[in-house]
Design goal:
Length: about 280
């Protein structure tokens, strides 16, 4: 008996979860020595969606670099989650804007608890394909409505992470969110990806344009992680690492074109994974 697939319509909120998921699949197909993600294939096979058009674009040299970015980003953020769990094994692991990302399951130590947050339409698809397991919850919410914080049990610590999320937020909203999190979750950490304004303007030609965003300067970008220092006196410290080379240097594992792209992302676009530790006092 054929299992009914979940249909994803074009130009919907649900479609935003397809690109990173498919990127992980393509990356594992083309760079199996770097990434293996059988779960991405299972999930893609469960969706009623025209992947062939996406495949043609993603299997171009530039498209394959995008797939590398998506897979490497998940790897980077998983490193931050695992590092926090070493000292806080029973912590809350909170995926902000989760889509169909399974980082919690890749990091699960058998003691921590996972919270996957996204908009209701996205969580509906997630519940069908990645229903919550033991010690895991899928929570429909708007991140800008801070009531979601009441659902997070952080008494044993919390590590928050977001992949490709804050580019959609206005800077003032990101500041409010980070400040509220620092106030509510002392001792927690937040890890997320960022790029500078040049990178944001480049995105304007792709997904920002598709999302109807025209005032790119109002949206979150980061020239230097030091800019965040003054956002809250509850930030204990802010650090950043290279997106493509900071956690596992894949420079020597890819071809000349992709090495050039890595240098471009590091030097001109400032793609980074940023980590903020929430403390009880001012910046150290």
């Amino acid at each position: 008996m054929e299992v009914k697939k979940i249909r994803i319509e074009k130009n919907t909120v649900q479609e935003t979860l397809v690109i990173p998921l498919f990127g992980r699949l393509v990356c594992s197909e083309h760079f199996p020595h770097l990434f293996s993600d059988p779960e991405a294939k299972r999930l893609c096979d469960s969706l009623d969606y025209d992947f062939e058009g996406k495949r043609k674009k993603m299997e171009s040299p530039a498209g394959l670099f995008g797939a590398l970015e998506v897979a490497q980003r998940q790897y980077d953020l998983a490193c931050e989650v695992k590092a926090y769990l070493e000292s806080h094994p029973r912590a809350a692991v909170v995926n902000l804007g989760c889509g169909l990302d399974d980082t919690f399951r890749k990091c699960d130590n058998g003691q921590c608890r996972g919270y996957n947050l996204d908009l209701p339409d996205v969580i509906a698809v997630r519940n069908a394909l990645l229903p919550a397991r033991e010690r895991e919850e899928n929570i429909p919410c708007d991140l800008n409505d801070f009531s979601w914080m009441e659902k997070i049990n952080a008494e044993s610590g919390a590590v928050f992470f977001a992949a490709g999320v804050f580019y959609y937020f206005k800077t003032e909203d990101v500041k409010k969110l980070f400040s509220a999190m620092a106030e509510r979750f002392p001792g927690a950490v937040l890890a997320f990806d960022s790029c500078n304004r040049r990178g944001a303007k480049m995105m304007r030609k792709t997904w920002l344009k598709e999302a109807g965003i025209t005032d790119v300067n109002a949206y979150f970008s980061l020239e230097d992680e030091g800019e965040l220092a003054g956002w809250s006196d509850r930030f204990a410290f802010v650090t950043a690492k290279s997106y493509m080379r900071g956690y596992r240097d894949i420079y020597g594992e890819v071809g000349p074109f992709h090495r050039l792209m890595i240098r471009f992302c590091d030097g001109l676009v400032k793609m980074k994974i940023v980590k903020i530790a929430f403390g009880k006092g001012g910046l150290k």
